[in-house]
Write a structure and sequence with these properties.
This protein is α/β, with parallel strands linked by helices and 375 residues long. 45% of the residues lie in helices and 7% in strands.
């Protein structure tokens, strides 16, 4: 039997100074605050209510094909790097394929803008850019998408509305706000998707951008690709708040927490976020929890984590294997999946051959694209 509550001793109310004005919050004000707080949670709730995109077999096959293309392309890039055909830094996207494919499949190619950091090959492939010109850029050839002068970290295509590829950590975030401002200024209905990592999330320029984007209701989706390690420091060692989707709360930006290893969950989250942004409500912050199988770059031995950890992610959470199992459950045959794999291997081999056989940039290219115009 529960004990009766002990009666509290009555407190003698303190007498307020004669000059003090009592602060009383009206029920309307409280309700307004509750509504605002609910609005910040509403997108996460909408995502939780319906987590996976109802893709047709053909749509899922397309997602699978794009993820396999990114995986095989990056594996080939790693081989070419080892052979000395790719110089400088090279950051591979292996393991994170579902993020770029799931999100960018919901964008309007050639209309919506995409900008990211230096781990950028996968985002370009997911946006339909020819693997040949990407591989040629990696190998510094004149046929590359930036004429061989950008390399792995600084690829660019105004035609495809892909604006880099940035080597300075976090620098792409305010630039993304500029792209979003251009969409709003032109009233063209476009959205900017700006990617950055868990390491860049702690930078001041990111929060300045959050503030401007929220203040001006810019059409931008901020995407934190949280692969757990920044360069080599585990998230919990470098961030006081490890739930990155909450980082926009102070700026009234709703957040979404998404499993970045499931392409169908990523795509469904993208649908929710883009509907909100395209309606003129301002920015959304999405945290995509993902994992990279390789080191930060090709020169990183990744000794800050165990082989067992990486293997467990490969065995239990691989985005490509997950999509494959989903296809098999739906009755798609092994032969059809093998045909896709074979086609992709051939496509990547052709891209590598194209890059290796293409000439290096001509000497006069040293003086092009240095300054667009005089200011």
């Amino acid at each position: 039997m529960a004990k009766p509550a002990r009666p509290r001793a009555a407190r003698t109310p303190k007498t307020a100074p004669a000059t003090a004005t009592p602060v009383v919050q009206s029920s309307d004000a409280i309700a307004a605050e509750d509504d605002a707080a609910f609005a910040l949670r509403s997108l996460q709730q909408a995502h939780a209510n319906n987590k996976r995109f109802e893709a047709s077999d053909e749509e899922l096959l397309k997602f699978y094909e794009q993820m396999v293309l990114i995986r095989r392309f990056e594996e080939k890039a790693g081989q070419l790097y080892g052979l000395g055909l790719i110089g400088g830094f090279c950051h591979l996207y292996i393991g994170q394929e579902a993020v770029a494919v799931g999100l960018q499949s919901a964008l309007k190619e050639g209309h919506d803008s995409v900008i990211t950091g230096y781990r950028d090959h996968g985002h370009m492939l997911a946006y339909g850019i020819d693997p040949k010109v990407i591989m040629a850029e990696l190998t510094g050839r004149g046929a590359g998408i930036s004429r061989g002068k950008g390399g792995s970290m600084h690829m660019f295509s105004t035609e495809h509305k892909f604006y880099g590829g940035h080597g300075i950590v976090g620098a792409q975030v305010p630039l993304g706000a500029g792209l979003a401002f251009a969409h709003k200024y032109r009233d063209d209905g476009g959205v900017c998707m700006a990617y950055f990592g868990d390491g860049a999330s702690n930078q001041g320029q990111v929060y300045e951008t959050f503030n401007m984007a929220a203040l001006w209701k810019l059409p931008i989706v901020f995407v934190v690709e949280n692969n757990g390690y920044a360069m080599g420091t585990a998230v919990k060692r470098g961030s006081a708040e490890t739930h990155f989707y909450r980082r926009g709360t102070a700026f009234r930006i709703p957040g979404m927490d998404v499993n970045g290893m499931d392409v169908l969950e990523v795509r469904q989250a993208a649908e929710v976020a883009l509907e909100y942004v395209r309606a003129g409500n301002g920015p959304v912050l999405m945290e995509l929890n993902t994992y990279r199988y390789r080191g930060h770059s090709m020169s990183d031995p990744a000794k800050y984590r165990s082989r067992e950890e990486v293997q467990e992610m490969r065995d239990k959470h691989d985005p490509i294997e997950g999509a494959k199992q989903e296809l098999l459950k739906r009755g798609v045959t092994e032969d059809r999946i093998k045909d896709i794999d074979k086609k992709i291997r051939q496509q990547v081999a052709e891209a590598a051959d194209f890059a290796e056989s293409s000439p290096e940039p001509q000497a006069h290219e040293l003086y092009t694209d240095v300054l667009v115009e005089t200011y």
